[in-house]
Amino acid sequence: MWRYREWLPLADGEAPVTLGEGGTPLLSVPRVGGKHGFQKLRVKDEAVNPTGSFKARGLAVAVTRAARAGAKTLVVPTAGNAGVALSAYAAQAGVRARIYAPASTPAPILAQIRAFGGELVLVDGNIGDCGKAARAFAAETGAVDVSTLREPYRIEGKKTLALELAEQLDWALPDAIVYPTGGGTGLIGMWKAFAELAAAGWVSGSRPRMYTVQAAGCAPVVQAFEAGADACTSWPGPSTIAAGLRVPSPLGDRLMLRALRESGGGAVTVTDPDLAAAARDLQTLEGIDASPEGGAALAGAVALKTKGAIGADENVVLFNTGAGWLYRA
Ligand SMILES: *Cc1c(COP(=O)(O)O)cnc(C)c1O
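A: This is the predicted complex of the input protein with pyridoxal-5'-phosphate.
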């Protein structure tokens, strides 16, 4: 990822905190495409990042900047994968990590947080409740809060999703990007990167239409998009097996809604059975270890094609944001 260091907040000669994140494959998926009627479908497989998800990109940058500024303790609320990434990158930086996660987080994710030495606190509630506990800990101890959009650098790391995609497609951007959305750093980061690429003259023509996919049991962004609102209302009782999408009240709601509308994209929900079946298609037909969120992206693309929002012959890129094994009991 740091081959794009000129696009990232890193000074000349400064060494990043890194575990080799980024540089993930962009895979053609002809069998899945054939089954669901797509001619040019690709999957950017983020499961192969260190710590098993694309959270590695953002946390590598956030931990780099915090550690270089002298932070000794970092804290994060998490639906799961951000906690694994913070635990590992804090170990690499030699700083302390404190992680608040819902008690309902999949067991392998909790085991990975502990394995890298992060101090894990289980919360009887959702990520919003974890956020309150994390902010209280930060206020009490002076720890740096690296929550989504409460510091500026995770977004910068997520920009590299778009930079890699552009380079892998030889600087011809896809027609549509379908992204499983929780807190929205990936969506906001990619949209920022496309604007920066266009401003630098590295790409021309129209930018991809950005589509959000959320689970039917937690869809505040889809609800706000469909209502024509410019902010989300908190989703009561969020529930889905796709833990990364269980974000009832995203802080980046306005930025996400703006990116969806500016890009000419949209938003769609999928049910848990549909996202699980789609993840299984990616696993059994293509050998891609899709997380439930990656399954949601495929199920969402199929739903968008059925609605006529995406054409069968368009260049479509899905993100498999994390590894399926982290969710298996
Ligand atoms: C965090 C996460 C998401 C949601 O990403 P945002 O950038 O917060 O919208 C999706 N999938 C997985 C596997 C995640 O860990």
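The beta strands are 26-28, 40-45, 73-77, 96-102, 119-123, 144-145, 176-180, 209-215, 266-270, 315-320. Residues 102 and 123 are 5 Å apart (CA to CA).
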